[in-house]
Amino acid sequence: MKIVTTALAITLAGFTVSAQAQQITGAGATFPAPVYSKWGEAAKAATGIELNYQAIGSGGGQNQILNRTVDFGASDAPMDAAKLESGNLLQFPTVMGAVVVIVNIPGVDMNAMKLPGDLVADIYAGKVSKWNDPRIVEANHGLTLPSLAIAPVYRADGSGTTYVWTSYLSAVSPAWKSTTGAATSVKWPAGAGAKGNDGVAATVRNTKGAIGYVESAYATQNKLITTQLRNKAGHYVTPTPETFQAAASNANWKDAKNYAVDIIDQPGDKSWPIVSTTFIELPKDPKDTARSANVIKFFDWAYKNGSGIASSLDYIPLPEAVQSAVRSSWATEVKH
Amino acid sequence: MLVLLGAIIIELFIGGLPAFRKFGFGFLTSTDWDPVQEQYGAAVSIFGTVATAVLALLLSVPIAFGVAFYLTELAPQWLRRPVGTAIELLAAVPSIIFGMWGFFVIVPVMAQYIQPTVIDSIGELPVIGALFQGPPFGTGILTAALILAVMIIPFIAATMRDVFMAVPPVFKESAYGLGCTTWEVMRAIVIPYTRVSVMGGIMLGLGRALGETMAVTFVIGNTNRIATTLFGPGNTIASIVALEFPESEAGSLKLASLLALGFILFVISFIVLAISRMLLRPRLKG
Fold it and tell me: Which of A174, B16, B56, B216 could lock onto B148 through a cystine, CB 3.0 to 4.6 A?
């Protein structure tokens, strides 16, 4: 009897080992972490590949994949072309997502406030400091605005969300571009910082007169008061999956090198102005081709079957054409 | 142990060398922290680190002393153990818990009640009012110092209680015999006898306050400006390293600057230690 149990135990152990062989590891961006973890759960059941993803931040993800300590890296800001070259990495997009503006002003309801982009930039630059500033009043006829100090709240930790947000401010305001610029963390001219999306959301909720920015999924799930933004076409749009999709469909994927497409402030009547892509970096010369093949298998599965999950979390799935372009890159550029 | 410590310091110094080379002495005095232009300076975080730690000490030492005094001299015998245990338990609470408590409980209270009231009353006064102005974010130097104070009270109080208890009863009883009050015994017998260890306990607290990361990160406001008021947001060396490290690319000047900050924090801790030794030296001899 004892021998049988031992044999059984060994067989079971064998199974666990073979199951572990299917594990893939990735590290990087926090922005797509929710969708990667959902994909991971679903893909494990469907394909047997177990994803171990560590959301350590885009910069950290780039470092880790350059050092080859993980199977793939993930980052919100596209990696430098030169760095991709020297690190011998293939970069491809996975999903797109949007960043929304949240406010806490007494008497202002969901999506009631309208903000032009340059005004948002001036608010974050500290140039507009009261909610009843003539420029805000002008954009919001019919809204009673209190004489309340504006408290801009930003991400204190380096983050891809901040990269997307400051890219937007740079796109709509030349003054912002020349004085502050766009990066995962910048020298903020005004306001206070908070850690993470949750930190920004909680600080905005606690501070009367606060304005902040978070990922759209975060705002929807927590029912935060978002605002409308004026897009490039001059229309005010509300943050909804339709307006995100409208912006995404405008992206010019054909001319983008390494898929590093810029979809901030796109034209189009319905386009939400702050939409961005998040990327994966995969070694072209993997040490372990089996693991690399599993990474490809995982994202192939996610392209085919993950759209529903992505949409339910307020991300925007990639267009079919881009998916097939990425598939051919996998086939030709990554060593098997 | 010493080798390990030395290795860490050398590693930090070498890692930070590019930043020291690029900015020279200006790294210590510059208030810039601009990742886009690659301009980095340590002045704001050094200021924030020292300011929060010293404020925390100012707030916590009197309370910790009161607690230790109560526990050793005033409290009834049956109460001493449970209260003492509670204080020790407080020291075992992880700092992230203090951070979350600070962020979700203290910060809203500060933002909605304390800060607006203080800004409208004390903030109007001349001179001293300048310390209590600014928008009521709830976060800031004072909030961070408050949380730090709560965190280090148990350390200081526990040390003080232990050393107060170590005073030979014979000394105290002879003082009581001469007709001294409890407070006179405390001042004339217990404190002079335990001065060195009390300072040691305070320095232990200061050391923890200087290096505390998570709790401070939650409540300090994380802004790279030197706060001119107690309610102003700022940052500390530990908080900026924790926040910026994940987004620093290998080999970048930013990473070098963060490592240089770590080195500076080490140096500050050493200076604090050195000062405390110097303060204590004459008494150690005597």
Answer: B56
Residue type, B155: F
CATH architecture classification, A99-250: 3-Layer(aba) Sandwich (3.40)
Tens digit of each residue's pLDDT (9 = 90 or more) over B203-219: 888 988 988 888 888 88
pLDDT along chain A (336 residues), means of 10: 51 47 85 90 90 86 89 89 89 92 91 92 91 91 86 87 92 92 87 85 86 88 90 92 86 82 86 92 90 92 91 87 89 84
Read off the amino acid at residue B124.
E
The Cα A133–Cα A136 span in angstroms is: 5
Distance between CA atoms of A215 and B37, rounded to whole angstroms? 26
Alpha helices in chain A (DSSP H): 2-20, 33-47, 58-66, 81-87, 117-124, 134-139, 160-172, 174-179, 196-206, 216-221, 241-249, 289-305, 307-312, 320-333
Name the residue of chain B whose CA is nearest to A148's CA: B135
Q: Give the residue numbers in A contacting B (CB under 8 Å), as ranges.
A: 56-60, 62-63, 66-67, 149, 151, 156-159, 180-188, 191-195, 199, 202-203, 206-207, 209
Q: What is the pLDDT of residues B53-112, one digit of tens each?
A: 999 999 999 999 999 999 988 888 898 889 888 888 888 888 889 988 998 898 888 888
**Is ipTM beyond 0.90?**
no
Sheet containing A236-237: give its strands across: A114-115, A228-230, A236-237
Q: Which CATH code for domain A2-96+276-333?
A: 3.40.190.10
